[in-house]
Design goal:
single chain, alpha/beta, Wheat Germ Agglutinin (Isolectin 2), domain 1, Rossmann fold, 2 domains, three-stranded antiparallel β-sheet, 7 strands
Amino acid sequence: MHHQWLEGNLPVSSKCVVCDKTCGSVLRLQDWRCLWCRATVHTTCRSSYVTHCSLGPTRHATVPPIRIVADDVIEPPLPGSPLIVFVNSKSGDGHGDRFLRRFKQILNPAQVFDLAAGGPTHGLRLYRGLAPLRLLICGGDGSVGWVLREIDNLQLKVSTIIPCLSSVMVDGIKEPVARSVNVDTPKKTRPFFHFRREATSI
């Protein structure tokens, strides 16, 4: 697929992938950034850069937008093992919405679902034909149990699902589900910027 370029609003201290010089401006919309691989490039250098988009550091976990066709049907095969994220926006002492927005920036927004706005059914049905499939559940015991029950209701093959259960939204206690799957729950929700750095290395 080709890059999807957005003009301006480049991160501070961005460097051009072609000439390795600083690009962007805080004063005006200047230069370009790819929404998928996050490459930044000068306007004058863009024509010299490769047209194919690699999807960046999360390419093995990201569903390319060109693979999503009419009626939300996923067109296989897909590169890598897609990561499907379920976030409870009501969990985490108010941090849920922040995680939801950040995951939609890191991955294809069609891979990220808010459990508080419809539950896990649509997301699981959409990707049920893909294998292997990785699930990341951001929430507490109730959120994890909700997704697991829906997996059972939809009769999904558990052998094709790689669980990445996450308790990063849990605030203050060691929850039973976290203990049962050997996930260590911190006493306090980890700072957002720490998880952001970890998520970009998926």
